[in-house]
């Protein structure tokens, strides 16, 4: 029963394989062979009641027809290498199966009579068995071959769709990384130039703090520069930069700036975009405490909602408070975009005034 053979091809969808001999061998998978043998056994069992020959002999014939049909079906998927434009390969495979079924049946019966064609034609039982096997194969085989080709094409389409989806996600990730690098490049010079401008002010005014501040700045930059090229570090690393920066600013204006950094230790291991918190701290110094005649105090804190997992990270100052342009600057807009790219669209930056005066900038996000 060569019907098992096309069915075996249908049973295991063929994904894209190498061409030529390698593709042919790859298409003869163990699962296809096992399925072919199983279908040959079922076919022999169904035909056994109408055959005089013993079941083992009948099984041998169905196995022969089934395996040969599977081999030719797989071979037709590779050869000939080139076909006329008007001849689809699936048509060739179906035609090959339809041709193999009767020929394989005739061959197996000729082997049974040692190639004596007249003896085969005179034996009514053998001739009837040949017709039964070949006829059943011709009825079922091409349909099974078409089903196999359909499943193969469907599997290839799904595989290609998954491949395109993977490429799309990789391209989107590369685009996000490129945007993060661009925004990081905008943050770095902004921070460095502002810090150097503070040192220049001390030098120009002849402040005795200029030397210690410059020394602290050098030590700070030595530790900070390797991190400037990183898109993400830990919140603990970011807090190290924040403390170093605030210490520098405290040395520049020791009577006008006080600060405290109180972040729970369990949050320091969270992945966090580099320079994001430092941007808020720098804004608090530059736009809050520095313009105030009395100076001010900066508090850096954080907490996590144990129910929702939402993390709140804030920088609060007691400086001059919110100006008309607060929140509209490039630095804060840049920060909003970076947080959205890093933590998703739910991440946000909220600004609010604190009585009697001052500003609270709060980052809210859910860690991945």
UniProtKB/TrEMBL annotation:
The chain crosses the membrane at residues 33-52, 58-78, 90-110, 130-150. Keywords: Kinase, Membrane, Transferase, Transmembrane, Transmembrane helix. InterPro entries: Bact_2-comp_sensor_kinase, HATPase_C_sf, Sig_transdc_His_kin_internal. It comes from the Bacteria. One of its GO terms (cellular component) is membrane. GO terms for molecular function: phosphorelay sensor kinase activity. Residues 178-257 form the Signal transduction histidine kinase internal region domain. This is Histidine kinase.
């Amino acid at each position: 029963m060569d019907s098992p053979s096309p069915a075996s091809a249908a049973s295991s969808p063929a994904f894209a394989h190498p061409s030529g001999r390698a593709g042919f061998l790859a298409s003869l998978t163990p699962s296809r062979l096992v399925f072919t043998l199983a279908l040959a056994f079922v076919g022999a069992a169904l035909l056994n009641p109408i055959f005089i020959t013993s079941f083992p002999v009948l099984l041998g014939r169905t196995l022969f027809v089934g395996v040969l049909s599977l081999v030719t079906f797989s071979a037709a998927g590779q050869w000939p290498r080139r076909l006329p434009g008007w001849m689809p390969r699936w048509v060739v495979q179906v035609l090959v199966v339809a041709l193999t079924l009767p020929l394989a049946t005739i061959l197996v019966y000729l082997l049974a009579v040692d190639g004596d064609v007249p003896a085969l034609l005179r034996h009514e039982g053998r001739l009837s068995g040949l017709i039964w096997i070949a006829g059943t194969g011709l009825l079922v085989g091409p349909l099974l071959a078409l089903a196999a080709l359909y499943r193969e094409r469907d599997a290839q389409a799904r595989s290609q769709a998954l491949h395109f989806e993977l490429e799309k996600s990789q391209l989107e990730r590369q685009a996000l990384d490129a945007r993060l690098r661009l925004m990081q490049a905008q943050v770095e010079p902004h921070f460095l130039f502002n810090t150097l401008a503070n040192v220049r002010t001390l030098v120009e005014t002849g402040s005795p703090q200029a030397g210690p501040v410059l020394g602290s700045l050098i030590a700070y930059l030595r530790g900070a520069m390797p991190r400037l090229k990183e898109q993400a570090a830990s919140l603990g690393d970011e807090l190290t930069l924040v403390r170093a920066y605030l210490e520098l600013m405290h040395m520049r204006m020791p009577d006008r700036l006080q600060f405290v950094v109180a972040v729970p230790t369990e949050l320091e291991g969270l992945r966090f975009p580099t320079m994001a918190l430092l941007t808020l701290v720098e804004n608090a110094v530059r736009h809050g405490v520095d313009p105030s005649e009395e100076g001010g105090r900066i508090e850096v804190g954080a907490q996590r909602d144990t129910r929702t997992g939402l993390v709140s990270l804030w920088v609060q100052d007691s400086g001059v408070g919110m100006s008309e342009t607060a929140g509209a600057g490039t630095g804060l807009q840049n920060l909003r975009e970076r947080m959205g790219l890093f933590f998703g669209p739910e991440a946000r930056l909220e600004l609010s005034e604190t009585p009697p005066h001052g500003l609270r900038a709060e980052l809210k996000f859910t860690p991945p």
